[in-house]
């Protein structure tokens, strides 16, 4: 059983990475915040059945599921009903990297986000995505290779 103290501490430590994960999927600040909030609420309600060693991976999986729920809801909403939101601002040195990550298909983007932004181990991230560790490592390798190729083309030498 996950204690309230462990839940609060771990959730607070993971909050920034969870938000980045949700935002990378949804591309909307309000929806990303909603996804994280819903995930935290659902996880809190189920905390009695969650082991401490799998909590971060479990929470990331719930965030991904909430993002998909929001995306399904978006499909049912007419584009005229969606509000216009300003594009998110990232630190300038990360713009090219974030743009390259956005170009990746979701099955490559999620391993990058889970490993590097959420700090999950390969085993935890693979469990989160419900894939074998070897498949996760393969996707991560291919994602890094694609990012490297894209970023190398973008480099301007003076």
Keywords:
Rna Polymerase Sigma Factor, Chain: A; 2 domains; 158 residues; mainly alpha
Fold blueprint:
Layout (H helix, E strand, L loop, with lengths): L3 H23 L2 H17 L9 H22 L18 H9 L2 H12 L4 H8 L3 H22 L4
Commentary on this structure:
There is one protein chain. It is built from 7 helices and no strands. It has helices at 4-26, 29-45, 55-76, 95-103, 106-117, 122-129, 133-154. Helix 2 packs across helix 3 (55-76), helix 5 (106-117) packs antiparallel against helix 6 (122-129) and helix 5 (106-117) crosses helix 7 (133-154). It is globular.
Quick summary of this structure?
With 158 residues, the chain is an all-alpha fold. Helices cover 72% and strands 0% of the residues.
Radius of gyration: 17 Å
- Looking at the structure, the CATH topology of the largest domain is Rna Polymerase Sigma Factor, Chain: A
Residue share in helices?
A: over 70%
Q: How many domains comprise the coordinates? A: 2
DSSP, total strands: 0
**Euclidean distance between termini CA atoms:** 58 Å
Report the CATH C-level class of the largest domain. Mainly Alpha
> Could you give the order of the helices and strands?
HHHHHHH
Number of helices: 7
Give the overall pLDDT as a whole number: 84
CATH architecture of the largest domain: Orthogonal Bundle
Structural class label: mainly alpha
Flag low-confidence runs: none
The coarse silhouette is globular
What's the main sheet like?
A: none
How much of the sequence is in beta strands?
A: under 5%
């Amino acid at each position: 059983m996950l204690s309230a103290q462990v839940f609060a501490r771990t959730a607070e430590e993971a909050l920034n990475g969870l938000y980045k994960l949700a935002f990378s999927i949804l591309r909307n600040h309000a929806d990303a915040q909603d996804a994280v909030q819903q995930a935290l609420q659902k996880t809190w309600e189920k905390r009695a059945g969650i082991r401490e060693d799998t909590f971060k991976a479990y929470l990331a999986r719930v965030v991904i599921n909430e993002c998909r729920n929001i995306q399904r809801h978006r499909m049912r909403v007419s584009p005229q009903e969606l509000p216009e939101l300003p594009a998110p601002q990232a630190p300038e040195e990360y713009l090219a990297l974030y743009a390259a990550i956005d170009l990746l298909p979701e099955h490559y983007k999620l391993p990058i986000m889970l490993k590097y932004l959420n700090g999950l181990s390969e085993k935890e991230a693979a469990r989160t995505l419900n894939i074998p560790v070897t498949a996760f490592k393969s996707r991560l390798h291919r994602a890094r290779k694609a990012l490297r190729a894209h970023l190398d083309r973008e480099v301007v030498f003076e």
